[in-house]
Amino acid sequence: MDPSKPHEPSVDQNRSIPRSRPGSDEVLEGEIIGKDEPLGRPGAVPPRPPEAVKSGLGFRKTLLLVIAVVAMGLCLGGSITAYVLYDKATQPDRSSPTVTLQQYLNARFNTRDEARASIFTCSSPNLSAVDRAIGDIKTLESRFNISITASFSDMAVAAVGEDSSVHVKINLAIPEDGDRKSVQVQEWKFIVTYGGNWRVCSAERLS
After folding, report:
1. What would be the CATH architecture of the domain defined by 97-205?
2. Most buried residue, 30, 49, 178, 189, by most Cβ within 10 Å?
3. What's the predicted TM-score (pTM) here?
4. What are the residues whose beta carbons fall under 8 Å from the beta carbon of 132, sequence distance 6 or more?
5. How far apart are CA 96 and CA 112, in angstroms?
6. How confident is the model at residue 81 (pLDDT cuts 50, 70, 90)?
7. Which long-range contacts (CB under 8 A, 24 or more apart) does 83-88 make?
8. Whole-angstrom distance, CA of residue 188 vs CA of residue 169
9. What residue ranges are annotated as transmembrane (predicted)?
10. Is the alpha carbon torsion for 186, 192, 198, 199 positive or negative?
11. Is the pLDDT of residue 187 over 50?
């Protein structure tokens, strides 16, 4: 302290003297910084906070998801309906003598499905006459390279207790030259027996 200047403030010799900040981000020891001045490099823009991630699927994705679910439901419903209809169509119906005989004859003469035909027969049937008729048809088809189909008409039932005698005409359509067909009519008698449901037990060709 200068004695000639009694009002001059005293200077602490051990106190650091503030220095100007160099052109860097480093804050010097003893540096005086204003309260409104941001730390770091002068003029630097503070980093923006990261944007929040949008949650949810969005309208377009939600719409596509709804369409996919609806389409899947329709396909599943259609498959179930088709299965039910197919199962009903292929389920054997042995509720009456004529219905049972109709399905048996169709399986033997048209689809030639002996496994299905056996569903409509007794455990020990006497149907050798039908076997011979099918054999004759196959021989004719093989000889002339044709396909013979059958239809069934004029079913007449005579009930005798649990056994029913059913008369039926089997009409065989035999292809001729061109688009013509000849029809061979055979008269048959079948015995259909009831034992909880109707079964074909025997057959006899009448003409």
Report:
1. Roll (3.10)
2. 189
3. 0.58
4. none
5. 22
6. very low
7. none
8. 6
9. 63-86
10. negative
11. yes
Place of tokens 């109707």: 198
Environment class of residue 83 by beta-carbon count within 10 Å: exposed (0-12), middle (13-18) or buried (19+)? Answer: exposed
Q: Which residues contact 199 (CB under 8 A, 6 or more apart)?
A: 94, 100, 120, 121, 122, 125, 192, 193
Query: Helices marked H in the chain — which ranges?
Result: 59-90, 97-109, 114-117, 128-144
Tens-digit pLDDT profile for residues 101-146: 999 999 999 999 999 999 999 999 999 999 999 999 999 999 999 9
Q: Please measure the distance between the N-terminal and C-terminal CA atoms of the chain and give it in whole angstroms.
A: 153
Taking only the tens place, the pLDDT of each residue in 161-184 is: 789 999 999 999 999 988 899 999
- 30, 18 contact by CB (below 8 A): yes
Question: What one-letter code names the amino acid at 124?
Answer: S
Strand order, beta sheet including 121-126: 121-126, 198-205, 181-194, 163-175, 149-160
Between strands 121-126 and 163-175, the pairing is unpaired
One-letter amino acid of 13: Q
Inter-residue contact 204 to 129 (CB < 8 Å): yes
Contacts for 194 with CB less than 8 Å, ≥ 6 apart? 97, 162, 163, 164
Domain ranges in the chain are 97-205
What's the length of the chain?
Answer: 207
What is the spatial distance between Cα 195 and Cα 190, in angstroms, rounded to a whole number?
16
Give pLDDT, residue 60: 76
Tokens at residue 36, please?
Answer: 């409104």
Tokens read off for 62: 């939600």
